[in-house]
Amino acid sequence: MEQLASRAGPGGTSLTYIEGWRTIELANTIFGFHGWSCTVLEMTVDFLEATENRKWSAGVSALVKVTLKDGTVHEDVGYGTGDNQRTKGAALELAKKEAVTDARKRCLRLFGNGLGNCVYDKDYIVHINAEKRKLKASSKPNPSATTINSANSYAASLLSATSQHAFSSPSSSSSS
After folding, report:
1. Across the 176 residues of the chain, what is the mean pLDDT of every consecutive 10-residue run?
2. Alpha-carbon gap, residue 105 to 99, rounded angstroms
């Protein structure tokens, strides 16, 4: 539950997502620090323009590949913008970082629920939001472990299914 963030979406909706740094943390936890890598395959500047108030805006798309130690690969695209920046370089930098982060998150979610695919499960989001409301409504300063654990156990079951796939390999021995 603590891995999820939300922001305002179109039409007064709420969008649930996992922040970029958290996806890296989760991937390191699931695959190991040296168990995965991320490569930028392509980056395209879709637009770069100066606004009438002498600010710069840019849009960039990126194609990223995530590779696991066992050779499993997923690729996906991401998009980023840098709006109303003081310099052209600042607009491009922001857009590029956002595009790569978006693409990496999209790649990692393809490895399963534990890495972000769960945010596309509306039932999961409803469950998590209900648990968050229970925590807020609780008058106790320290919410009961039971309330927290019910949401975490659901998330753990999703993570467990992903982890079992991620760690299954023909040889589990390592050499030094």
Report:
1. 71 82 94 97 98 94 98 97 97 98 95 80 78 74 45 49 43 40
2. 10
Q: How far apart are CA 117 and CA 156, in angstroms?
A: 13
How far is 109 from 115, CA to CA, in rounded Å?
5
Tokens 């790649």 correspond to 107
CA distances from 122 to 91, 117, 118, 127, 151 (A): 34, 11, 8, 9, 14
Burial 35-67 (b: 16+ CB within 10 A, else e): ebeeeeeebeeeeeeeeeeebbbbbbbbbbbbb
Q: What is the dihedral of CA 27, 32, 33, 39, to 10 degrees?
A: -50
Give one DSSP letter per residue of 134-163, joined into a string: HHHH--SSS--HHHHHHHHHHHHHHHHHHH
pLDDT attached to residue 169: 39
Backbone angles phi, psi at 93, to 5 degrees: -60, -50
* Number of Cα atoms under 13 Å in the Cβ half of residue 105: 21
Determine the pLDDT at residue 140.
Answer: 56
Residue with tokens 């997502």: 17
Bridge partner residues of 66 (DSSP)? 38, 74
